[in-house]
């Protein structure tokens, strides 16, 4: 882990901070929360709440979702604080508030800390301590394990670090039950196994970005061929994990049929990424990888939406 603070002129990329600095607007601070990521986090957390056995008062359910949202936003702000040096040198992230100088590093850090403490404390006070502990673990894992430790040290960063994004449905489940069960672990595993092919599909097209800042993403360290192979492997592993809710009896025939079809599309795109690359058509392989990245977001949303609809619309029919 680097001993240099984000304001240290010796830290890589520190010279890229925009000058002069001006006070950030509400929109700038909202951007620190990574709202697009937050929306998926909140949705999967909602599914965890709805699927969990038992009931939770609507006000407490809303409080739990709000805490999950704020905790996710806090993680985003702390990530942008720590990664500002490399964000400013990457095309995809150069426009973020800290490297552009719209929000100072100190403000981003303070904002993230306040939101972290507030979200965990509120979850513990208004919901339960198990959900609060899981939320604290999520924030800490994303900041200390992924952002500070893994991201700049190993190509397995996104594999292990992906756990942080997989906790929300488990937190939602714990908000209702006060416990962790095999069902909530399965929800966690769906997101955990989905994350590597999702992110590596993006990384194939952003390889030069990561290479330029020295982040050892898999395409940089192992090359595009190995990355395409790993996308294929994880895509194959994702299918049985996605169908595990059916085997455990908390998803029915509608989910089974649609999830199988979605999985077939996912696998086909992953195979295209691999096969076109093996055929030597790098440009086509990268183009398909971009399509896989876009579809993977829709895939995860629809998988969790199916679970939600089956539970709430009265169309659950067990698979015999």
Q: What do you see in this structure?
A:
With 320 residues, this protein is an all-alpha fold. It has 2 domains: 26-180, UbiA prenyltransferase (Tetracycline Repressor, domain 2, Orthogonal Bundle); 182-320. The chain contains 16 helices and no strands. It has helices at residues 26-32, 35-51, 58-82, 84-87, 97-100, 105-126, 129-150, 157-161, 163-166, 168-177, 182-205, 207-213, 218-221, 223-247, 253-278, 282-312.
Which secondary structure elements does this structure contain, and how are they paired or packed?
Blueprint: H1 26-32, H2 35-51, H3 58-82, H4 84-87, H5 97-100, H6 105-126, H7 129-150, H8 157-161, H9 163-166, H10 168-177, H11 182-205, H12 207-213, H13 218-221, H14 223-247, H15 253-278, H16 282-312
Task: Produce a short descriptive summary.
With 320 residues, this protein is mainly alpha-helical.
How does the major sheet shape up? none
Mean pLDDT: 91
**Strand percent estimate:** under 5%
Report the CATH superfamily of the largest domain.
UbiA prenyltransferase
Counted up, domains total 2
Shape: flat
Helical content class: over 70%
Q: Helix count, per DSSP?
A: 16
Instruction: Quickly name the level 1 CATH class of the largest domain.
Output: Mainly Alpha
Alpha-carbon distance between the two ends: 52 Å
Quickly give the structural class: mainly alpha
Which consecutive residue ranges, at least 5 long each, have pLDDT under 50? 1-19
Q: C-alpha Rg, in Å? A: 20 Å
Beta strands, count: 0
CATH architecture of the largest domain: Orthogonal Bundle
CATH T-level topology of the largest domain:
Tetracycline Repressor, domain 2
Secondary-structure element pattern, one letter each = HHHHHHHHHHHHHHHH
């Amino acid at each position: 882990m680097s001993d240099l603070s984000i304001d240290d002129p010796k830290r890589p990329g520190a010279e890229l901070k925009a000058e002069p600095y001006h006070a950030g607007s509400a929109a700038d601070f909202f951007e620190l929360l990574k709202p697009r990521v937050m929306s998926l986090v909140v949705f999967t957390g909602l599914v965890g709440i709805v699927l969990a056995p038992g009931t939770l008062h609507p006000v407490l359910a809303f409080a739990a979702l709000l805490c999950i949202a704020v905790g996710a936003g806090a993680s985003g702000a702390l990530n942008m604080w720590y990664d500002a040096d490399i964000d400013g040198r990457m095309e995809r992230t150069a426009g973020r508030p800290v490297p552009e100088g719209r929000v100072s590093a100190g403000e981003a850090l303070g904002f993230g800390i306040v939101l972290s403490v507030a979200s965990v404390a509120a979850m513990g006070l208004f919901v339960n301590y198990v959900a609060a502990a899981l939320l604290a673990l999520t924030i800490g894992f994303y900041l200390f394990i992924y952002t500070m430790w893994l991201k700049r040290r190993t190509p397995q960063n996104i594999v292990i670090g992906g756990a942080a994004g997989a906790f929300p449905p488990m937190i939602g489940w714990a908000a209702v039950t006060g416990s962790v069960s095999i069902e909530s672990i399965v929800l966690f595993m769906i997101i955990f196994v989905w994350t590597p092919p999702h992110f590596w599909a993006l990384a194939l097209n952003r390889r030069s970005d990561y290479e330029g800042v020295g982040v050892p993403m898999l395409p940089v360290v192992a090359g595009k061929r190995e990355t395409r192979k790993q996308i294929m492997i994880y895509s194959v592993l994702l299918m049985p994990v996605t169908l595990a809710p059916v085997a455990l009896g908390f998803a029915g025939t509608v989910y089974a049929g649609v999830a199988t079809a979605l999985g077939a599309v996912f696998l086909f795109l992953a195979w295209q990424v691999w096969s076109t690359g093996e055929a030597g058509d790098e440009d086509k392989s990268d183009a398909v990888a971009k399509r896989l990245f876009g579809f993977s977001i829709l895939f995860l949303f629809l998988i969790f939406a199916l679970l939600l609809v089956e539970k709430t619309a009265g169309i659950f029919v067990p698979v015999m």
